[in-house]
Amino acid sequence: MTAKTSSLATDRGMFRIAIEGPEHAPALMLSNSLGTTLEMWEPQVAALTQHWRVVRYDTRGHGDSLVTPGPYSFDVLGMDALAVLDTLGIQKAAFCGISMGGHTGLWLGIHAGHRLQALVVCNSAARIGSASAWAERASMVRANGTDSMQSLAASAPARWFTPGFTQRQPLVVQRAQAWIASTPPEGYAACCDALGHSDLRDQLARITAPTLLLAGSADPVTTVAEAQSMQACIPGAQLAVVPASHLSNLEAPHAFTGALLDFLAAATA
Question: What is the 3-state secondary structure (H, E, C) of 113-159?
Fold first, then answer.
């Protein structure tokens, strides 16, 4: 499946988007992980568009969305998501993000909860990694440009997928590697800056939207334990665990999509 994409001019810049599903269905916004594009959601689109008007977008610094000099912050990335919704005339939407996109979802739940019909935070955490590790990665990418992106693409499967999946589905893995290899270096580094400086742990109790935390059982980056920690802080949050590593929507698409649809159906009934 190839997404039909377009460029959307917002008051915060130009974003590449794809909109699919019934025109008058409720809106569901999908937000990509670091080093990927809106194409990462293709395994979910057919099922989601049976019930939802699905809005995908390339995060700032990724794909064909605008690339501005860093550092970025989640104030920037969260306001970008709201700008896309505003420009499309969508007052309220369900939101599902994975990894960096999931952290954007947490920011929205804290700062713009009135815009969320439901929130799904996948393979993410309120504090992802360490500031020093993200600073080191951002510095490496800025120093070495596209060579660094190629190196990150080569090492990505170990962070993103289980070894068994990498062996069984080499074409899926190679496509994911191509996304990160083609990510603009400054956009990637600037998002590393945002991840390095964001810690939302003390603000999670402010989230009031119905929330699902979806984790991969074999995720070494954002663990099940971190999802459980968030669940203890977010009122009424639910937890689902699927048999996958970090990019769980690609590794376990059936289980991921089923958990997502079941939650959204109940949360918005």
Answer: HHHEEEEEEECCCCCCCCHHHHHHHHHHHHHHHHHHHHHHHHHHHHH
Q: In what order do the strands lie in the sheet with 238-242?
A: 5-10, 13-20, 53-57, 27-31, 93-98, 116-122, 211-216, 238-242
Give the phi and the psi of residue 118 in degrees, each rounded to 5. -160, 160
Strands (E), the chain: 5-10, 13-20, 27-31, 53-57, 93-98, 116-122, 211-216, 238-242
For the full predicted model, state whether its pTM sits above 0.90.
yes
Helix (H, G, I), strand (E, B) or coil at 192: helix
Q: Are the C-beta atoms of 65 and 186 separated by less than 8 Å?
A: no
| Per-domain residue ranges of the chain | 5-127+200-267
| Closest listed residue to residue 154, CA positions, set 65, 35, 244, 243 | 35
Q: What is the pLDDT along the chain (269 residues), one digit of tens a residue?
A: 567 999 999 999 999 999 999 999 999 999 999 999 999 999 999 999 999 999 999 999 999 999 999 999 999 999 999 999 999 999 999 999 999 999 999 999 999 999 999 999 999 999 999 999 999 999 999 999 999 999 999 999 999 999 999 999 999 999 999 999 999 999 999 999 999 999 999 999 999 999 999 999 999 999 999 999 999 999 999 999 999 999 999 999 999 999 999 999 999 98
Q: Considering only the top CATH level, what class is 5-127+200-267? A: alpha beta
Give the residue among 229, 243, 198 at the shortest CA–CA distance from 77: 198
Other CB atoms within a 10 A radius of the CB of residue 64 amount to 15
Contact criterion met (CB below 8 Å) for 238 and 226 = no
